[in-house]
Specification:
By secondary structure, this protein is mainly beta. The protein has one helix and nine strands, in the order αβββββββββ. The protein starts with a helix and ends with a strand.
Length: 137
């Protein structure tokens, strides 16, 4: 628990948003993309099961027009199925996001959706959306 967490009295075991059985944290490696040339960054998404029971989970990411999941930029939505996430455990998945020669300098929003599934991947029990800002310079 960090310094501010200790002051505020919030435990890390509790979900950030009430009603959700998981916490979502993100990281970018490196921090920004190169504009007007082919470069890639890694978007790391960590999902921590805050409940005591296991559930199935998946993460999907949607990128804007001038970004993609490969250098060509054809794929705009990608889903990674995590599988069974045991109670109180954390799983990290990685998305490779690439720019191309048409990517102008600016800030781009990537929409992440984390789904909690019931029995199989066709039944969604709960979900949360998070927006991640990526800078191209």
């Amino acid at each position: 628990m960090g310094f501010l967490g200790e002051l505020m009295g919030k435990s890390e075991e509790e979900p950030v948003r009430a009603g959700l059985p998981f916490n979502i944290s993100t990281a970018l490696r490196p921090v920004r993309l190169a504009a007007r040339k082919e470069s890639c960054i890694e978007l790391l998404v960590s999902i921590k099961n805050a409940s005591g029971s296991a559930f199935m989970a998946s993460v999907s990411a949607e990128v804007p027009r001038f970004l993609g999941f490969e250098n060509v930029g054809m794929t705009k939505i990608k889903e990674i199925r995590i599988g069974e996430l045991p109670g109180k455990k954390e799983k990290t998945v990685s998305f490779s996001i690439c720019s191309n020669s048409q990517t102008a300098p600016g800030t781009y929003s990537v929409l992440l959706t984390v789904n909690q599934h019931y029995r199989d991947y066709s039944h969604v029990q709960n979900y949360a959306k998070k927006t991640v800002e990526i800078r191209a310079v």
